[in-house]
Amino acid sequence: MPHSSYKFTHALCRQPGKSVAHGLRAVDGGDPVAQAFLDEHSAYVAALRATGATVVVEPAQEDFPDSVFVEDPALCIMGKAIILRPGAPSRFGERDGARAALARILGPDNIIDLPEGGLVDGGDILVSGHEVLVGLSARTNQAGVDLLRGIVEPLGLALRVVNTPAHILHFKTGCAILDDTTIFAVQDLAGCFPGYRTITCPAGEEPAANLIRFNDKVFCAKGFPKTRALLETEGYNVATLSVTEAAKVDGGLSCMSLRFSV
Ligand code: CIR
Q1: In this structure, is residue 2 part of a structural domain?
Q2: Which residues, other chains included, contact 57 with Cβ-Cβ below 8 Å and sequence gap of 6+?
């Protein structure tokens, strides 16, 4: 299957439940409000759909407060879904819902389980045009990366390991793909991308680095005017979305969808 890091036929999302108020967070700045989160999520889904993609929205899973962040329990590449082993104990059970939803879309034969013995969160995985970059973090360990390599390399993509600084939750909290060879990244990750054209996130707008390129659009969080202007100057078609509620539980634009082609 031809591989692109930003052209996708499909996305998978999951509605936030009322329990999202109990989602994990590094610093408590107040609980997300369930209805406001749902409204932001609906706008996000509509924006992805407007690019022409099929967006499947799974129902909320109240037993898993963070399950709206569907990116973490799975990685979709080359027509396959790899069911990961999330590093936060309260999130480990999200893999069953991810497996079921992805099997319905891709077919059960295209589901691969990461073997036991290591931990990997999807938020630590950035897929470019020719390789899979995985950031070691509090959620993703070397054993997990070694197991993931055993699945990814036979699919024809190289895997490269990088270190995520301790103050960044997930690798992709601080970086994103703009096209197959261009990466947008915070200054603290700037050294991770030799061989790529890197656009550095303006100082003071670091939360904006968790953006997504999805088909013809770059979706960026609202409230970061320097980032928007920079991306528009670089020729990208930018649209902004509000992620106020997701941000209260350390979430952003990339975490709320799995993006892939079938
Ligand atoms: C967590 O701590 O797991 C959630 N509250 C936020 C996950 C955000 N996911 C991501 O950056 N990929």
Answers
A1: no
A2: 13, 14, 15, 45
